[in-house]
Amino acid sequence: MRHLVEEAGLEHAIKVDSAGTAGYHSGEAPDRRARAAGARRGITIGGAARQFVRADWDRFDYVLAMDRSNYEDLEATAPAAARGDRLHLLRSFDPASPPGANVPDPYYGGDEGFDEVLDLCLAACRPLLERIRRERGLG
User: Fold this and answer.
1) CA gap 66, 81 in Å, rounded
2) Which of 15, 56, 50 is nearest to 30 (CA)?
3) For a surface tag, which of 3, 26, 73, 132 has the fewest beta carbons within 10 Å of its beta carbon?
4) CA distance readout (Å), 75 to 71, 84, 103, 124, 133
5) Nearest alpha-carbon partner for 131 in 93, 77, 79, 89
6) What is the CATH number that goes with domain 17-136?
7) 117 CB neighbour count, 10 Å cutoff
8) Would you list the domain boundaries of the chain?
9) Is 8 in a helix, a strand, or coil?
């Protein structure tokens, strides 16, 4: 998403962050296979892992879960007003995805799993960015 926002020249208007529901890898760089999949497409995947915290509900208009398990973990911490409004499964923004579709976890597979995940994320993030542009009048 960050790459698409930067491509659109909207980094001044849209803040993108990434956080996990668990703190297993806090402080670590993204998996080398994820970085390589991004590099093959000219996308820099950087930053350091962090855990989602309750204050993030106040910081972000959209909280996106990669799969149903993470969605449920996030839903359990969400203020009532955020549950139906801000929390979404990422693939719900991809019109070609079936309802309730998850982004698979590529961690225990090969490099091709990271390519697939990046393709799925881009397919969902493009329409999400267009929605945000419409909602915020960002042309």
Assistant:
1) 21
2) 50
3) 26
4) 6, 9, 17, 20, 25
5) 93
6) 3.40.50.2300
7) 20
8) 17-136
9) coil
Q: Which segments within the chain are labelled E, that is strand?
A: 63-65, 87-89
Tens digits of residue pLDDT in 6-15: 999 999 999 9
What CA–CA distances, in Å, run from 19 to 9, 24, 27, 41?
23, 11, 11, 23
CA 131 to chain centre: 15
Name the token pair of 115: 């390519």
Instruction: Kindly provide the b/e burial profile for residues 3-30, where b requires at least 16 CB atoms within 10 angstroms of the residue's own CB.
Output: bbbeebebeeebebeebebeeeeeeeeb
In the numeric block, the tokens 């409004």 are attached to 85
21-79 per-position pLDDT tens digit = 998 889 999 999 999 999 999 999 999 999 999 999 999 999 999 999 999 999 999 99
For 65, other C-beta atoms within 10 Å of its C-beta total: 22
